[in-house]
Amino acid sequence: MKRRKILVGNWKCHKSFDEAITLIAEIVANVPLELDRTVVLCPPFPYLAEAVRRTRESPVKIGAQNVWQEDSGAFTGEVSAPMLASLGVEYAIVGHSERRQFFLESDECLARKVARALAWNLTPIFCLGERWEDREAGQTLAVVQRQFQAVFALSAETTTSLVIAYEPVWAIGTGRNATPEQAEEVHAILRGLAMERWGSAVGEAIRILYGGSVKASNIDTLMAMPNLDGALIGGASLSAAEFLRIVHFQG
Ligand code: PEP
């Protein structure tokens, strides 16, 4: 099955407002309307409204880097799914390993975030991945399976827009990407789990992105793998030239 590829730039906690606007302009100018893949930029929260405004006439989509697990209430500092939806934001990264590690986000809280995002028609990009010590202990499958099962309460109908991002923690920001074969092995397992849980149609359709030190120099071989449906890109998305080379990968 041909799944449309998605390239997502996660800017994390980088860029001033002016730098962000310049980066958006450079990317928008080089993503043609007829491009056969989806491009999503995830700037910091305060820039989202302007990012939506500046990409409105282009195929570039805007995503948030996080979303709160309730729609509203006394949760100082948090940003909810209906708030993001009201801005025209279309995607939300959920469960990035930095959120799991530094903000102690649990499987349970991430499941709620995914559900709130879906309820407001935001496409969740649900991240999961093992640490190096898990891989060395032969626990990769057990870890990603447990993390994935956190969203198994979702129905098949709601799951159609869910996007998974396999991001081995040891590959994030380290310059050391998983090999295409290592990534493909996990992606195929995740697709198999999705098929078991939601049926073959959902399993075939669900997009599974790879993240972890993706660069212009490794994107072509990664995207050649049958179960890799795009990439989540951190460091390399902060340079327009590098990110655009990734967006326009051969394939
Ligand atoms: C990320 O932040 O999701 C990521 C994959 O970062 P990097 O591309 O820098 O490894």
Summarize the structure in words.
- With 251 residues, the chain is α/β, with parallel strands linked by helices.
- The protein has a single domain, classed as Aldolase class I (TIM Barrel, Alpha-Beta Barrel).
- An eight-stranded parallel beta barrel has the order 1-2-3-4-5-6-7-8, surrounded by five helices.
- β7, α11 and β8 form a beta-alpha-beta unit.
- The chain starts with 5 loop residues before the first strand and ends with a helix.
- The structure holds phosphoenolpyruvate.
- The site of phosphoenolpyruvate has 14 residues, from β8.
Descriptive key words:
alpha/beta, TIM Barrel, 12 helices, 8 strands, 15% strand, globular, binds phosphoenolpyruvate
- The CATH topology turns out to be TIM Barrel
Give the spatial strand order of the biggest sheet. 1-2-3-4-5-6-7-8
Distance between the termini: 15 Å
Structural class: alpha/beta
The CATH superfamily appears as Aldolase class I
Strand content: 5-15%
Largest sheet: 8 strands, parallel, barrel
Helix-strand pattern, N to C? EHEHEHEHHEHHHEHHEHEH
Question: How many discrete structural domains?
Answer: 1
Gross morphology is globular
